[in-house]
Design goal:
Elements (H helix, E strand, L loop, with lengths): L1 E5 L5 H10 L3 E5 L3 H9 L3 E2 L3 H5 L4 E4 L4 H8 L8 H4 L5 E4 L5 H13 L3 E4 L2 E2 L1 H7 L2 E6 L2 H14 E8 L3 H30 L3 H8 L7 H4 L23 H18 L4 H15 L10 H8 L2
Bound molecules: nicotinamide-adenine-dinucleotide.
Protein name: 3-hydroxyisobutyrate dehydrogenase
Organism: Microbacterium psychrotolerans
GO molecular function: 3-hydroxyisobutyrate dehydrogenase activity
Length: 299
């Protein structure tokens, strides 16, 4: 089975490496020459272009930044051959980028119209998960295509969940990250409120982590240093999950909220709060650093 892996960035390169290490025949490509050189230096087979990598491929995996990049690579707007034109007939297209639900559905439709099969398979777990092959995949597409992709996804991740039909992997991702954003803000507000009331960080942690306030934003990504020694707060909010990426994902949530007309007031407020955070230093800091903004604005 011939696999093309396109998009060798922070996530894509370690994912492609893990796939090759599991014994698959992988050819990688990225539009950034430096990313191709880094991949080749690391021993990955690379190609001269995206279509070169995908020509005759049975599986085409993409790991780009945006939905526009995915759609344009599938079917080029300038009329040149796109990935859908050159892959083997009936190839399986797996897009692992985090993109909007409607963009993912458009990508599925393009692949289907070209006689191919496709899945949306965004991930969580970050660069560390990509390197250690411990990513979680959220997958949208048919049962048959999901089963065909499963061994490949399991070579790159630890948890693979079939969420339903086309676009529903992206739907799960956007819903999960909206929960995460809202809960991280709530936890940060609670710590600042506790400080003002004279409550120690450790005391609040000991109570809430064993009570109904318990959540990942508290017990793994604790926004104050001390209670969880591995959380970004202990290393001056180095990410982790950068504010810029949370802001991107909340932009996708906002798009989905307005497309569906859902009354998601907390989600939209989180969107606004993280857009401001990411417009400043927060872009490059962990999103739990929002506590510093809350503290400063409470002064
Ligand atoms: P990145 O910018 O490091 O990598 C994306 C790569 O895609 C870039 O190197 C870019 O040059 C390349 N690219 C774009 N168009 C291309 C094309 N047509 N052909 C070949 N290469 C092309 O981004 P990343 O951090 O690896 O993230 C990738 C995706 O994963 C994003 O959608 C992001 O939201 C999502 N994600 C990232 C993380 C994280 O922690 N970095 C975690 C979960 C999900």
């Amino acid at each position: 089975m011939k696999i093309a892996f396109l998009g060798l960035g922070h996530m894509g390169l370690p994912m492609a490496r893990n796939l090759a290490a599991a014994g698959h025949e992988v050819t990688g490509f990225d539009v950034m020459p430096a990313a191709v050189s880094a991949a080749a230096d690391g021993g990955l087979t690379t190609a001269e272009s995206g279509t070169d990598a995908a020509t005759g491929a049975d599986v085409v995996i993409t790991m780009f930044q945006t939905g526009a990049q995915v759609l344009d690579a599938y079917r080029r707007s300038d009329g040149a051959a796109g990935l859908l034109d050159v892959a083997a007939p009936g190839a399986l297209f797996i897009d692992c980028s985090t993109i909007a639900v409607d963009e993912a559905r458009a990508a599925h439709a393009l692949a289907e119209a070209a006689g191919h099969r496709s899945l949306d398979a965004p991930v969580s777990g970050g660069v560390v998960g990509a390197e250690n092959a411990t990513l979680a995949f959220m997958v949208g597409g048919t049962d048959e295509d999901f089963e065909a992709a499963r061994p490949l996804l399991e070579a790159m991740g630890r948890r693979v969940v079939h969420c339903g039909g086309a676009g529903l992997g992206q739907a799960a991702k956007v819903c999960n990250n909206m929960i995460l954003a809202v809960s991280q803000i709530a936890v940060a507000e609670a710590f600042v409120l506790g400080e003002r009331l004279g409550l120690s960080h450790q005391a609040l942690f000991d109570v809430a982590s064993n009570a109904s306030g318990q959540c990942w934003a508290l017990t793994t990504n604790c926004p104050v240093p001390g209670p969880v020694p591995t959380s970004p707060a202990n290393r001056d909010y180095q990410p982790g999950f950068a504010g810029a990426l949370m802001n991107k994902d909340l932009g996708l949530a906002e798009h989905a909220i307005s497309a569906t007309g859902v009354e998601a007031r907390m989600g939209m407020l989180a969107r606004e709060i993280y857009a401001q955070y990411a417009a400043g230093d927060g872009a490059g800091q962990d999103f739990s650093g929002i506590i510093n903004t809350i503290r400063a604005e409470s002064a």
